[in-house]
Amino acid sequence: VSCNPTGSLATDAVLLCQPATKRYTGLPFKPTSAQPVDMFPMTDHCEMVMTFDRMTKSEYHGSISKNDDKKSKNDDKKS
Question: What is the average pLDDT across 37-66?
Fold first, then answer.
């Protein structure tokens, strides 16, 4: 749950969804759902409820190979 979807939620989501580092180990998460909640209808403010699930090994390795394929295709176009 975030009361600052464009600030802290965006920053935290990047940390949760990035590949493992020395500080943050394990498979990354992926966002699976997001729902804005207007708890204060008389204001412009909105809360965001977001669900993250940890990626499976096959999802993680599949996303890496897809990204590598895109990079190699882009490199081929540049040549």
Answer: 88
